[in-house]
Amino acid sequence: MQRRHFIQLGSLALAQTAAARLAASQMPGMAAAQPQAPPATKADITLRIEPVTVELSPDRILSTIGYNGTSPGPILRMKEGKPISVDVINDTDTPELVHWHGLLIPSDVDGVEEEGTPFVPPRGRRRYSFTPKPFGSRWYHSHAMAFADLHKGAYTGQFGFIYIDPAADPGRYDQEHFLALRDWEPFFTSSMVDDDDDTRHGPQPEKPAVLNTDPNGLEVGSMTYSINDKSLGAGEPLRVKAGQRVLLHLLNASAIENRRIALTGHKFLILALDGNPVPTPQAVEAILLGAGERVDAIVEMNNPGIWIMGATNEKVRSFGLGLIVEYENQHTQPKWVDPSKDPWDYTIFGAQGATPPSRTPDHTFDMAFEKIPAGANKFNTFLVNGKPYPRENEFVLKQGARYRLIMRNRTDDAHPLHLHRHQLELVDMNGVKTSGIIKDTVVVPFFGRATVDFTADQPGLSLFHCHIQQHMDYGFKALFRYA
Asked: What are the two backbone dihedrals, phi and then psi, of residue 180, each rounded to the nearest 5 degrees?
């Protein structure tokens, strides 16, 4: 695909918005986003979208939009299978959506314009009612489009953890912490390099024989980072005692980048990916988290000292992506040691031996992803099977059938790909077979290939997209619908 073939894509933003609204208008009961009167009954949870300030450090205070006066928003704990209601009150001048990422819920409450969820109108309110499932680490965030406005959508502080309590305990632990990796104050740049991406050194089965050498369009970057609402060195350390087991719920809440993190002197015992228990827990020194991904891990506190947990990229860590882990009765300076260079590998957490996928697929969708440098005026355009969003009736599902997605990444980015309202079983990563790993967001490596299976058991519209906001805004999405 050559850039000159896509001059007409300069109006992509308008076309996408119109198509999403058309799809919504065709869904009964989902077309209009009219203000709602306050319900007669009290909701279980109230979320208020409003301006907030975030003090990353004493000399770095920023303004953004968050939930209930904070960013991250409150941790929402729910019971699997117990119906819940959430009142969302929008105290801003912009229509908003709250997406319940990783939950298996109907499309009209999923919080996605393309699926027909009504907006929460400016100065208005809307009630979301659903039954939370499956158990595990999920999260909630704005799903509004942003395009060239870096003060909208996932660039704001609208995000927070959901934890759906399971029937089974994940194991003995002494402390539990919810930690979100975050970048702030985004800006446009023409010279962005993803130094955190450890997929660049792996196999490249989808690398085109002839590369497009046109200059890249503007990308979104940041030089301000935090874990939760504090940059490295600000706020209280994570205080531990020797011998404790600490359960960490980790989330990459970035709208911009995948991130690799480590905790000096310790290993992470990976229990769950995207909230779903892995067949084979494994201990690793570093974790690669794609935008939108979650990891649950136990850390054995068996190395007394004062350590840094944070980005393995020195520049990103120095700009704030880290926190101090402090053992009691220790008085040294915080220490950082680079972890091993072992690349992140999903497949080590899969079922051991030649275990086949849980079910043979009935149908296969082959999906190729391409980038057109500066294809949308100043910005890159992303294509799925040769076309940017919108598209019609290309991915049509039959209820109850099992589907395989072969995802071919023919770009020089690692893309975190998310399918709403369904769970994906990873079956192949760059030719390495696996099974039993259940996710909702999968990073397809640099010029790499990933294959996932899922069962079509959630009728309605379901959005598939890259979880990097700019990529989604400029074409990297598709709509799955049921026949």
From this structure: -105, 125
